[in-house]
Amino acid sequence: MLEIKNLHVKLEEEDKEILKGVDLTVPTGAVHAIMGPNGSGKSTLSYVLAGREGYEVTEGSATLDGVDLLELEPEERAAEGLFLAFQYPVEIPGVSNMNFLRTAVNAQRKLRGEPELSATEFLKLVREKAKELNIDAEMLKRPVNMGFSGGEKKRNEILQMAILEPKMCILDETDSGLDVDAMKLVARGVNALRSPGRSFLVITHYQRLLDHIVPDVVHIMADGRIVRTGGPELAREVEENGYAGILEEVA
Amino acid sequence: MGAQQQESDALEARLARCREDLAQYKAGAWIRKAREEAEARLRAMGLPGRRDEYWRFTRPDLLAAPEPAAAEPFETDEALVFDEIDRLKIVFTDGRFDPRASDDLTKAGVGIEIITLLEAAEADLHWAQDIFGRLEAAGQSPVPRPLAALNTACARNGVLIRVTGKVARPVSLIYRHYHTHSDAMLHHVVRLEEGASLTLLENGPGGARFNSVLEVDVADGAAFDHVRAQGRDHDRVAATHLFARLGAKSALRSFTLTANGRLTRNEAVVTFTGDDALAHLAGAAVGDGNSGDFHHDDTIFITHGAERCESRQVFKKVLMNGAVGVFQGKILVRQGAQKTDGYQMSQALMLDGDSQFLAKPELEIYADDVACSHGSTTGAIDEEALFYLRSRGVPRKDAENLLVLAFLEGAVEEIADEVIADDIRLRLQGWVERRG
Ligand SMILES: Nc1ncnc2c1ncn2[C@@H]1O[C@H](COP(=O)(O)OP(=O)(O)O)[C@@H](O)[C@H]1O
Ligand SMILES: [Mg+2]
């Protein structure tokens, strides 16, 4: 269970508060969505949870199954089972995707005190998961995200998620820049991972992804706060009336 | 006493010692002539001094001084680089040919003849006389390289290799260092006849102070691959020169790995004399100023004197704790050298704010139809990439190491032979994992 309480975050470099008291609980096994206009702080929330530098938490807490995330290094959070599918996956020249995946899997296993996967075990795992996501072997040989199309980058994020098997998955606008087919593929990948022991926080600007990954709960974020929480119907309300309507109601 | 007087005293001291040393050995007419001419060249230019523009970023004192500074040999139980590779071994210990540690040179195989400089020097005539000291002399203009002339005048040891066929098994020159004060000087000549090919490996520190010259004459259609790993001794100093003359449709690929070393200056002087040839020069230098001073200098001079030749320079340095990296690279395209393709990239990755990278890239072009590009960058580890890796569970140090190796990969991938390249990768991986 992910529990975020009264989380206030400002930029380290300037006096700008971005998250202004976020309260959010995602129970184990649940799929929650966060929707909200651009600039409302959705990515900031995901980065702060993942441990990116440049932000300062001034108040509040964030725990995963009781473990204080904010105290941990990014790699420790990952080992605790947190995974962020980046809105903008990073390109890393010189590191092959395959090498990256193997390093990540084995690093997490090591941090958790589990034995590393053998080369054959790893290969088998990657091939199987890549096939499900329609990722061809060539893409695995190339440097991480280099020369990948927008859709390939997003599928690569889901591939990492499928291989790492985290218990808390945060997807930051995994649908943005995808055509319908690519989005369906990504949604199928995510749905295949849904399980009673795994929670999702799906961040999206549009409702359409939520037609494919149907959430249990939908939150609306605006100006650094969760301003409304409801069922899947809330997403449809956004689709019909836009954010303006909902935000007026709240105000 | 003025600095100039000191420098000329240093020169006289070195020449006196080298004459004394050479006097004990028989020297035939060809080598006497080469040495006398080199000595005259050297007197005309003098040893490098601090005021020399070409030595602006690297102090030549330790390299030019009459006596070498002390350097302890580096002790390790690890398998040495290239140990796993099937090769013909030629060993020099503190600059002296070591026949017992070396393979039998008379059994070098088909298409290749190897003779030590000691032995070749006894004859009055030798095939190497057209190359020995000649490529070095040609490389003295427009920029003097006095340490190379000193080498021609004084080196007693080295090998002369003539390749007439496509030789699959690499020749491996191994430079051991035992004595704390050894002053080693080696001069090698490689002649590749038309269509011939050879891979030459070099590894080891050579001595407390090491001065080496490698003259390579690559005839039409021949290919020379050169991979070198300079020793890990912390206090060693080295000045190396590669002089290469490239015939039509020939190829030269040279890669150097440097880890540790108080002072290293690697000069490469490459001249295209025939059309459609290529030269790829690359280097990966990694230095931690905490394990002793680290100063590493790549100085490259490529002359395009023929048409449609391709030159490529990829030099990468990883610097930390006050390490200093220098890159001086010049591409000279002579009039008429049309369709020249020249590329030069020098990059430094700084692991902290204490280190320094000094780069002087130069292009001088006298032909109108050429494509030349160059670039030089200094940067830190990419924070975005680091966070991405860490967010996947890779600990900071491991993530940094992965990015450091990825940075160096751009130079390592210039090595044509995958097995040799993997061996180099292993060394670099060892270095990043050991670093503090
Ligand atoms: N590193 C940063 N520097 C400056 N402004 C930032 C930074 N990160 C976020 N912001 C600002 O914080 C607000 C929230 O951004 P973000 O979290 O990316 O929103 P969303 O993902 O909801 O579009 C925006 O106004 C954005 O400009
Ligand atoms: Mg965003």
Structural commentary:
The complex is a heterodimer of chains A (251) and B (436). Chain A has 251 residues and is an alpha/beta fold. Chain A is 40% helix and 28% strand. Chain A contains nine helices and twelve strands. In chain A, the strands form three sheets. Chain A has a six-stranded mixed beta sheet, with helices on both faces. Chain A has a four-stranded antiparallel beta sheet with strand order 2-1-4-5, with helices on one face. Chain A has a two-stranded antiparallel sheet with strand order 7-8. In chain A, strand 11 and strand 12 form a beta hairpin. The relative contact order of chain A is 0.18. Chain B has 436 residues and is of the alpha/beta class. Chain B has one domain. Chain B contains nine helices and 19 strands. In chain B, the strands form two sheets. Chain B has a ten-stranded mixed beta sheet, with helices on one face. Chain B has a nine-stranded mixed beta sheet with strand order 3-4-6-8-10-12-14-16-18. Chain B is globular and about 70 Å long. The interface between A and B is medium-sized, with 31 and 23 residues. Bound molecules: adenosine-5'-diphosphate (ADP) and magnesium ion. Adenosine-5'-diphosphate binds next to helix 1 of chain A.
Largest sheet of chain B: 10 strands, mixed
Percent of residues in beta strands of chain B: 35-45%
Total count of helical runs of at least 4 residues of chain A = 9
**What structural class do helix, strand and pairing data of chain A support?**
alpha/beta
Termini separation of chain A comes to 30 Å
Which pair of chains forms the biggest interface, and how many residues does each contribute?
Answer: A-B, 31 and 23 residues
| Helical percentage of chain B | 10-25%
Radius of gyration of chain B: 21 Å
- Quickly count the domains of chain B: 1
Contiguous runs where pLDDT drops below 50 for at least 5 residues of chain A: none
Q: What is the number of helices of chain B?
A: 9
